[in-house]
Amino acid sequence: MENWLNPQEVGKIIRAARRKAGLTQETLSGLAGINRTHLSAIENGKRLPTLEILFRLCSALKVNICDMIEEMKKYFTI
Fold this sequence. Notes:
The chain is an all-alpha fold. The chain contains five helices and no strands. It is globular, with a radius of gyration of 11 Å.
């Protein structure tokens, strides 16, 4: 199945939000209830987050999910 979102760009957006919040991968993954290696794979563009994981990350980052999705839409292709 082909991705319509660019995983590398999504990862960059999440990494930038994490750094802006001043959090380490270990801290963010703990707050979001996911494994640090899973977060690392997302940030490195090797995996796309599910909607549930994206909600968890945004909640932990105190970022509005609509704003995060709006940023990701720039890299949406069909």
